[in-house]
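Thread: Newbie trying to understand structure tokens

Hi all, I'm a second-year student working on a class project, and my supervisor (Dr. K.) asked me to get a predicted structure for one chain before our next meeting. I've only ever worked with sequences, so writing a 3D structure as a token string is new to me. If someone could post the tokens and maybe explain what I'm looking at, I'd be very grateful. Here's the chain:
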Amino acid sequence: MIFSRDYVTYLARHTVADLIEAKMIRTNKVSAVNERVNAGLLEELSLEDRINEEVRVILDAYQDEMHRTGAAYAEMFKKVKQELARKYKAVL
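---
Reply by user tm_fold:
Sure, no problem. This is what the structure looks like when written as tokens:
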């Protein structure tokens, strides 16, 4: 993940505070809303990490074939990652 968990928590708190201040949401349980927004942000931001791990698993399975054909790992990583992002409808 490109952001630290502490920074994501900070972003979640400020997002909720801004939404309450703008009267876009109302709640009596600000801490619960903070936790839910934080969890949602962490889930979304960790998607790229999960995709990268899946790409590594796929490329490990085809490592011998890639070596025989002379395919560059970095190039294949980029292509497989793009396909998985399309499959998961992720914007990276």
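A couple of things are worth pointing out once you decode it. The chain has five helices and no strands. Residues 5-21 form the longest helix (17 residues). Feel free to ask follow-ups in this thread.
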